[in-house]
């Protein structure tokens, strides 16, 4: 292990550390510094001298030793030195009492005998102030307003040794701004307050007060706008500067008088025709008044007075727009209410009445000065019809038909009422609408229409309107006849009345439907001996069809939505009457008759086959009708053969038939029009012959 080191000196410059100096020991690579306070101690490893032990308590006596260290181990501790740590720094509490003073205070420091506090501007200007005291507070005065100061303080012990120092920056509060000016904008009722900036001020607050009302504006610049000031008011304006240390004293108040408010309680009277008297109440801060009177033709006059009334000349039929302003040195009052006064209007000119329909008349006239509303009155019949409008036209509707009316137009003014000396004009309304009482069908295409006549000297026109076209009839009485209406068509039937006064409204329409048309083409086709197919073309206006085949032996009937139908239970060899009924959606029916139809002749019964020889066959049957001839037909793969007997016989022979084949034998009737083997043979039963 290395030799024991020897401490040259040990001292404390900071309250939490002690610095030790010693002579180097040959062969030592490190040194261990130990600071012991009673039972507790703190060790620190350092490379060489000097070394510092940290983490100590302020104003505390420690025993300091040093041990040298190398790879062989540690030396014994050196002889100890007793060293006391420096005093702790006082913790300052600083505030600016005013714009030229700063107060400093702190808590007592352990083992401190006194304190030293120094103050100097942070920008280095001016001189440094320093005070020593045994108290825990002091005040620096006669400082610069709004300046930033650096304050340093430390404590010393009974030996005069200084402890740790504490540094704090504090700004003094600003001085009050100077050269405050107020610029008032009378039109916007706002003021711009400006001042000279003061040193150290960060923000400014402008206070505008009037009685209990206070308005404030905060800004960092040297001006501020105060909006929404009230008219007719006197304000006091002051400015206060602020920084992080506090505020300055407010400036001396600057007095501001705003413009007067608009005059109120304005009254307008026409004390005599052609003369207007305008009066109002006086307003605060108003020195004089100006009244502007502008007529609706653009002419404007004014009156300047220090009193509260003015006289003006007026003309009838004019509207005057009147406004009153108050003035003082600050300017003109805001625009108050604009009043209008209208003199009595004149009667409308160029009166015209034109009928737009049988119960509506449009009345027009030339506009008159001063009228803002017109009333048109139509008296006649059982009452009065009124129309009010601001336009120079009015439409009188719901007039009684076929009536004479007395029409008068009155001009109105809300302020002055109406002019009732206007002359009337007489007009007559168009005839009344007829009312259709009955529509009857005299035949398929002839319709009789009857109505209730309710006009004098009127001509009535009846119209049937539909997709098929228009049909008309005319009469001066109470009925007329529509001719040649097409079948299967729908019509809307209405009537109008005409006279010298005009044409009535159409009557309520009555629906009319003609019976559906019979199909033009009808075809009967026999499907089997007892079933027949009937088809036909479309009948206009028909929705369903009923087809009937009728004979003395019975009837076959079919009801369908289609244009074809299958009829069963048909008797062979019978003449039928063919009829068809076309039915519309509403149940109207047309009965249609067509050319008769004869069903096919009846097939024979009891057909039997007898072999005559190896190449012959005899065919027997029972005839259904002795007046009908029959024909036997033999079909096979080796040929087709047939035979026809004489009239009245019920058998025939077929010879020379190739052997070794299977044949189909059919016996079918033959009509006077010639054989219909393809048709009738398919209806008759077949026999197999081998």
UniProtKB/TrEMBL annotation:
Upper taxonomic classification of the species?
Eukaryota, Metazoa, Chordata, Craniata, Vertebrata
Q: Which InterPro entries match?
A: FN3_dom (IPR003961), FN3_sf (IPR036116), Ig-like_fold (IPR013783)
Which top-level group of life is the source organism from?
A: Eukaryota
PROSITE patterns the record matches: FN3
Q: Which organism is it from?
A: Nicator chloris
Q: In this protein, which residues make up the domain named Fibronectin type-III?
A: 1-88, 89-175, 176-261, 262-346, 430-517
Q: Write down a Pfam family by its short name.
A: fn3
PANTHER family according to UniProt: FIBRONECTIN TYPE III DOMAIN-CONTAINING PROTEIN 7
Q: What is this protein called?
A: FNDC7 protein
């Amino acid at each position: 292990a290395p030799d024991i080191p020897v401490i040259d000196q040990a001292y404390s410059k900071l309250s939490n550390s002690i610095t030790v100096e010693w002579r180097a020991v040959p062969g030592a690579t490190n040194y261990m510094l130990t600071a012991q306070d009673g039972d507790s101690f703190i060790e620190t490893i350092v490379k060489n001298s000097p070394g510092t032990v940290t983490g100590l308590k302020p104003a505390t006596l420690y025993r300091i030793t040093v041990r040298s260290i190398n790879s062989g181990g540690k030396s014994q501790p050196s002889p100890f030195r007793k060293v006391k740590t420096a005093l702790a720094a006082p913790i300052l509490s600083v505030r600016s009492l005013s714009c030229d003073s700063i107060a400093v205070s702190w808590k007592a420091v352990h083992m401190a005998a006194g304190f030293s506090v120094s103050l100097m501007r942070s920008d280095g200007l001016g001189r440094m102030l320093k005070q020593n005291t045994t108290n825990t507070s002091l005040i620096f005065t006669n400082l610069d307003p709004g300046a930033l100061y650096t304050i340093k303080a430390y404590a010393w012990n009974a030996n005069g040794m200084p402890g740790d120092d504490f540094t704090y920056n504090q700004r003094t509060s600003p001085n009050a701004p100077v050269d405050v000016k107020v610029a008032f904008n009378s039109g916007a009722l706002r003021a711009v307050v400006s001042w000279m900036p003061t040193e150290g001020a960060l923000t400014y607050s402008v206070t505008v007060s009037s009685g209990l009302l206070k308005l404030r504006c905060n800004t960092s610049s040297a001006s501020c706008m105060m909006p929404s000031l009230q008219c007719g008011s006197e304000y006091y304006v002051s400015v206060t500067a602020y920084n992080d240390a506090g505020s300055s004293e407010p400036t001396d108040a600057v007095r501001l008088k705003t413009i007067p408010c608009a005059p109120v309680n304005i009254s307008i009277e026409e004390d005599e025709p052609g003369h207007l008297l305008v009066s109002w109440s006086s307003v605060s801060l108003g020195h004089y008044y100006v009244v502007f009177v502008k007529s609706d033709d653009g002419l404007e006059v004014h009156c300047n007075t220090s009193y509260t009334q003015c006289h003006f000349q007026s003309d009838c039929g004019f509207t005057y727009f009147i406004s009153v302003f108050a003035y003082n040195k600050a300017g003109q009052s805001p625009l108050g209410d604009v009043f209008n006064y209208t003199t009595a209007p004149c009667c409308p000119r160029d009166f015209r009445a034109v009928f737009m329909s049988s119960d509506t008349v449009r009345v027009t006239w030339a506009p008159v000065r001063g009228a803002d509303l017109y009333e048109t009155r139509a008296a006649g019949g059982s009452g009065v019809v009124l129309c009010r409008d601001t336009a120079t036209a009015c439409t009188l509707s719901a007039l009684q038909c076929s009536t004479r009316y007395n029409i008068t137009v009155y001009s109105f003014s809300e302020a002055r009422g109406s002019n009732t000396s206007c002359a009337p004009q007489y007009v007559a309304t168009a005839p009344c609408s007829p009312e259709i009482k009955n529509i009857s069908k005299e035949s398929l295409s002839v319709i009789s229409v009857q109505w209730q006549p309710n006009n004098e000297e009127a001509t009535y026109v009846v119209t049937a309107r539909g997709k098929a076209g228009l049909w008309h009839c005319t009469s001066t009485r109470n009925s007329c006849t529509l001719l040649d209406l097409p079948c299967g068509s729908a019509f809307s039937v209405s009537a109008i009345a005409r006279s010298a006064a005009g044409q009535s409204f159409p009557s309520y329409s009555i629906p009319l439907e003609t019976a559906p048309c019979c199909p033009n083409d009808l075809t009967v086709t026999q499907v089997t001996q007892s079933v027949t197919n009937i088809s036909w073309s479309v009948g206009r206006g028909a929705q369903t069809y009923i087809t009937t085949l009728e004979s003395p032996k019975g009837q076959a009937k079919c009801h369908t939505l289609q244009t074809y139908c299958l009829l069963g239970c048909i008797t062979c060899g019978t003449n039928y009457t063919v009829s068809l009924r076309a039915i519309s959606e509403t149940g109207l029916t047309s009965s249609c008759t067509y050319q008769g139809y004869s069903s096919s002749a009846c097939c024979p019964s009891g057909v039997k086959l007898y072999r005559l020889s190896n190449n012959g066959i005899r065919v027997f049957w029972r005839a259904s009708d002795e007046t009908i001839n029959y024909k036997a037909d033999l079909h096979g793969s080796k040929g087709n053969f047939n035979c026809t007997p004489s009239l009245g016989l019920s058998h025939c022979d077929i010879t020379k038939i190739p052997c070794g084949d299977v044949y189909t034998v059919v016996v079918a009737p033959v009509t006077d029009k010639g054989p219909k083997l393809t048709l009738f043979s398919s209806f008759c039963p077949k026999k197999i012959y081998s």
